Amino acid sequence: MAFDFHLPDVFEGTATAEIVEWKVAVGDEVKEDQPLVDVETDKAVVTIPCPTDGVVLELRGELGETMPVGELLAVFGERGELAQAGAGAAEPVEASAAEAHPTRETAALAGAPAAPREGAGQGNGAPVSPVEAASAAALAAGRPLASPAVRKLARERGVDLASVTGSGPAGRIVREDVLAAAGPQAPPAREAEAPAPAAAPARGDEVIPLRGIRRTIARNMTESWQTVPHIVDFRDVDATALLAARRDLRARAEADGDEELAKVLTMMPLLAKIAATAALRHPGVNSSVDMEREQITRHGAVHLSVATSTSDGLLTPVVRDADRRSVTEIAREIAALAAAARSRSLSREQLTGGTLTVNNYGALGSSLSTPIIPPGQSANLGFGRLQERALVRDGELVAAPVLGLSCSGDHRVLDGADLASFVNDVVAAIENPVLLLAELA
Amino acid sequence: MAGSADTRQLADGGVRVEPPEPLQFLAPDGSLAQEYEPALSDEELLAAFRLMLLSRATSERAVNLQRQGRLGTIATPDGQEAAIVGSVLVLDPARDWLVPTYREMPAMIHMGLPLPRFLLYYRGHPLGNQVPEGVNMLPVQIALGTQVPHAVGLAWGLRHQGSDAVVLVYFGEGASSEGDVHEAMNLAGVRQAPVVFLLQDNGWAISTPVAQQSATGSFALRAAGYGFPGELVDGNDLFAVHDATRRAVERARTGEGPTLIEARTYRLAPHNTSDDSSRYVDPTQLEEARARDPVPRLRAFLSERGLLDEEAERRLTEEISEELAVAVREMESESEFAAEQLFEHVYETLPRRLDHQRRALSEGDGEPD
Amino acid sequence: MAVMSMVEAIRSTLAAEMDRDERVILLGQDIGANGGVFRATEHLQERFGEDRVVDMPLAEAVIVGSSVGLAASGLIPIPELQFLGFGSQAFHQIEGQVARMRARSAGRFEMPIVIRAPFGGNVRTPELHSDAHEAKYANSPGIKVAMPASAYDAKGLLAEAIRDPDPVLFCEPLRGYRLQKDEVPEEDYTVPFGEARVLREGDDVTLVAWSVAVNVAERGADLAAEEGIACTVIDLRTLVPLDEQTLAEAFARTGRGIVVQEAPLTAGFGAEVVATVQEHAFWALEAPIGRIAAPDVPYPIGAIEEQYVPGPERVLAEIQRVMEAA
Question: Which chain B residues are closer than 8 Å to A127 by Cβ?
Fold first, then answer.
């Protein structure tokens, strides 16, 4: 078996050595300690002896060539390996400067020695770290945990930390907690980076204060766009089958005499159910990432945030447990939520807790979009306008109803492939709704 | 026989002391002084020669291993074998103690240090300087001269507890310039510590020749300043070294205090494997020194006495070669260690803070709790 | 229970330990007939003999270096450095030999050595006699550093140090030798290393000190109390090992704190305290941690010493500054 010998550090800190004279030739039978090569370092000329008995298979380094310590110098082995070695000689070998001795290097953390004995005062059970102990001590003394930066923010926003519940580790108050507590109050006073006073309005300008839902949306969208790396998967989907399904479901509702249901059976409930079902198979899109704790939580249930337009702006009431509810239920629920949204009677509970968003951006005509993922979620599946378009089906040009689909994913959680897999399932179910039967409980 | 130091009163006051001739029984050509009767038996002489050969062979092997990257930097005692072996043979390894620097390989072996363990130290292994229980030796010392106070304390402590053990401490003429050596010898004189100071003047402290190390004619003269005897011997003469050491050990053992022996010898190899001595050693001087090499000198004597012939030496050489090969294999097979060993043996019980560091290192995150 | 000064506590502990264990041996300059220049070893030579209380030549390196050999021979040596400042003469033996011998020999040779050394200011000593060098030893792995501030701790920590198989630098406060008196039980006890002492608790600010500076911190805390500021005062007792937990929790409870040290500011042990506290209690801090120390200048001559050594007024000023920090 071939023995690779790398140029050692012969003089305590040698970096390179120049080949002065080879004492052996390829093919020579050598003994351990027999002179191998004379090399010159910046300190002196040194003879390096053979590290082993055997046959010289390879010699690297031309006369006069300067080689770095750690580079392969020579290869030793058995006579039979000579031919093979010659063939492979042309390939450059990676220098591994760390190796002093090839086969017996002591690098690995091999085998733990007897564990050092417990330090004094550690007591029984797992030791509490000083950080944990200190945090507990502060809280016990009624003092909030917050970084200096957060404390400064709180001061500037006039937030009393004692009244804020921290969402960070060990109950630490983080920036978002202060911002949420600051809420719809007066804008920050004595802000060091306060923008210069606005110039007097020019002709025709109308200044609208950012308030209420608009302000919340502005802040949420800013935060999302600034912290979440969005990737978007765009598709054009053949909606023929889904349209047929909707038609049949409506017909059934009318046959039952349920005009209400027939009215609320739009594309959205179907798409919502498809999304919820596909989400179960791709938990990454139904998750939340916590960058402070450095963990991803995959939610067990699918609570769909359904983007709903109101005169005040976009709201996203939540259809809870969409993965467990029928298309019919979802249809009724979405309708009810939309009504509540328009009448401004949505409760806080109805507006929070969503794990995945679906939105119908196509209502006003767009085919593709870049949906923004709400904070705390990892994906936003959007559907565009349904439009009759040219399609190639089985090699033939046909006219078909095409639905635009744009799905955003949080690239911290989902790679392109993860997102595409989810979208593939959605597309497959749209093109062949029978696939939903596979998940029907 | 050595003469006595020549003390001269100077015209302008003060005293100048000229050193005597070094004690010598065995001349460089291997002929023994007529009036001297060897104090070592034939077996002891052959054992001494074998130890010197082992030392020389280990040096050669070790340098090769270093050049192959299998050992770290090593300083060999080439040329000093008689100074070391002649002195250490006087000790009783079961009772007496050796305090070395790093160069006295044959002395360490004589005291019971296993050869693989010696090599393991130069491998750079954390257990390499763990002197096994029962081997009366302090660890290899790199900080020159610092071991001499240790030796004095050790001798003093052993005597305090009723032992008649003697401590033999080695250091070079270069190290003897360190303040620690002066402080230690001064204390030894005051406490009458049972210690033998064996100063090897090998001519060089890396590239500093003796003449630049001290203006004294003989380092042994310093002993007078500390209140105990000093003796200059030919360090390449096994018998002279042995004789002086025997008397010094006897002195110490019977409570008569310390002795400083200066063994004048010569460093035939570079200071260590990182040194290129051709930069500063005059080749002529080196050749002359080789003519005084203690190994051929003893060989000549042993042959002349009929105690050694070519065949016997060839067998010895083979034996030694095999012993070395086994030791190298054993050393290399023991070479594994883990990062956690950084924390073993720092304190008897690891303090909590250090335990955190140990866990952080072994878990690889390098972060505190 | 008796009220004792620190030097009395030290002396009685040395005697008790020498009684308890015949391996204990004292060595140093002027410790025998003279009983030590501060009388820390008074009468001990009479009691235990010249072989166990040994007057040494004026040579710090061999006083410590021979202790290495004494320890290797099986004894428990207690070498004295007449003043910590002169420990520099022996530093290479302390840092490079005493502290490392166990690790170097992978456990074969342990060094149960206690190096005793007085230090500290406001006693008008000549140059180098008062210097506070503890940080240099705290940064030397393998040796422990104990700095008692009370007579009670002097006895307990010294007994612990002597019984510890590892080497300890035991720093004794010059000023505290006579002036620090408190109740010391007669029975045998030890104070464990790595456990700080909380002298008082207050919600507003934590003061950390050790040895000579503890008294200064206490008086600073008294001044602060008059202004309605309640201080927690911590005496570290040992720098190595360090009681991180007590420190972190106290700072976390108060949210503000300062370190008081007599040594010069830069790279003093206070820097280690601050680093450790911010590592563990960062989220609980309301204000930057303050440090009171001597300025980064050589220890001055006696008459100007008062300007150099931190006093209670400076502590109060720093407390106020830290309380006002937004």
Answer: 352
